Structure formats: structure tokens, C-alpha cells
Give the backbone structure.
Amino acid sequence: MPSWQLHRGDALTVLPALTDPVDAVICDPPYNSGGRTMHERTSRTAREKYLTEGGRNHGFDLGDFTGENRDQRSYTAWLSLILAHAYRLTRPGGAALVFTDWRQLPATTDALQAAGYTWRGVAVWHKPIARPQPGRLRQECEFIVWGSNGAMVPGNQPVYLPGHFTGSQPRGNARVHITQKPLDVMQQLVRIVPEPGLVLDPFAGSGTTGTAALLEGRSFIGIEQSATYWRVARDRFIELVAA
Ligand SMILES: C[S@@+](CC[C@H](N)C(=O)[O-])C[C@H]1O[C@@H](n2cnc3c(N)ncnc32)[C@H](O)[C@@H]1O
């Protein structure tokens, strides 16, 4: 029976205290994207940045979150620190999958490698409902930078995962986080861990990675800084396990 743990706090404080080896780190950090100047970085909260409807979604108050106002260099340094702690916990041959957008793709590939992982590629998350932009290419993809702790040895029953995933951010009542990932995409990604493995997500948000892991028979350790989202994720896991 897969199990789950959800820590509340800053990943940089919680990760050094963890000791269980994990089979994969699958995470969706705050991207810190788009803030070229001090003004741009400090004038909008995450909620104002990602939502046009003022933070409410069908009556559900989507919580804000912090950690979205680093400049480019400090984002690389900070993410390297986080991933270095994650690397210490990743078993040899285990994987790291880190979401990012086009602006932070170079920073994220640098941070993954600075942390110690062997960089193995970039997969694509295609978002079919992205906004068209007049005269420009549509920004309809985000990316999953991935690597491993050293050599990856396929098991007796290797999985064959795609490098391209399509899925829209949940809408309506299903949307409980500003930057929520599609459950179906996360369910495919957690299959990189052989059953019954252990997945770590230091930026759990509303618990999509954890929900996907539990649904796919993997165990989960999460960390979330926001009290609002920690409760959302915890309630999702409790409901899932009780069902
Ligand atoms: C991009 S969201 C993750 C969303 C998640 N994938 C989902 O589907 O719900 C990033 C999350 O990281 C949390 N966060 C930001 N800084 C953090 C930190 N230093 N330690 C732990 N969590 C943090 C935010 O509160 C936010 O919920």
C-alpha cells in the first residue's frame, strides 16, 4: 500500500533533515519567470502574475505563494541548492524531473547539473489552451528538464515513456492551485519510478505529483511552504486514500 508524508515549510530547511532515499525527484518549482527588473519582480504577486480573474476561481479562493521574485542569477543559485539536497536523497540511478518554462530553461539545465545530476534531456508539456499572440509564435509549451543520479539501469520490466505530454491545466472546480499541473501528465511522469517506488516533490503545491504517485502505486514525500496549499494537498491525499 503506497504511503504519503507531507511536510510544511521551506524546502531548503526541510530537505536537509530528510534521510529516506527516494527513487525520483519530480518537481514544479516557482519559475521566477518574466521579472527582468526590480519593479517587475516586486510589483506583482504570484496570483496577480498567473491569474487574470483576480485570484478567485468559481468561488474558490486560489492562494498566493511566495518565492517568485528572484532575479536570473539568484534563481539559478537557489535552484542549484534545492536540487543538491534532492540529489543527496536520490538513489543511484534514480531520476530528477524538473518543470520549467522557456525563459528559465537554461537556468534549470544549469541548476540540475550543478546539483550533481547527469542531464539526460528535455521533455515537452504541450498546453492546448494557450493564448494566441498576434504576430508571434504561441507560447504553448512548458518543459521538463530531466536527469539521473549517475547511470540508469533498466529493470527487468522497463517502461517506455513519451517525451511529449499534452494536457490542459485543470479548469472550473477542478482548479485548486494557481499553477496546477494536469493529473494525467503527472501520472505518466511518475511511471519513471518502478513500482513500488518513492517520489519526492519539494514544491508540492496542491499535491498533484503526490496524487499521481498514489494513483500509480508509488509512495510520496512532499514539502509545501504555503499553509493554504499544504492543507489542499493534505486533504487531497486523505480523500484519495479513504476512497
Ligand atoms: C508551481 S507551484 C506547484 C504546483 C503543483 N505542481 C500543483 O500541481 O499543484 C510551486 C509551489 O511551491 C511552493 N513553494 C514556493 N517556495 C517554496 C519553498 N521555498 N519551499 C517549499 N515550497 C515552496 C509554492 O507555495 C507553490 O505552491
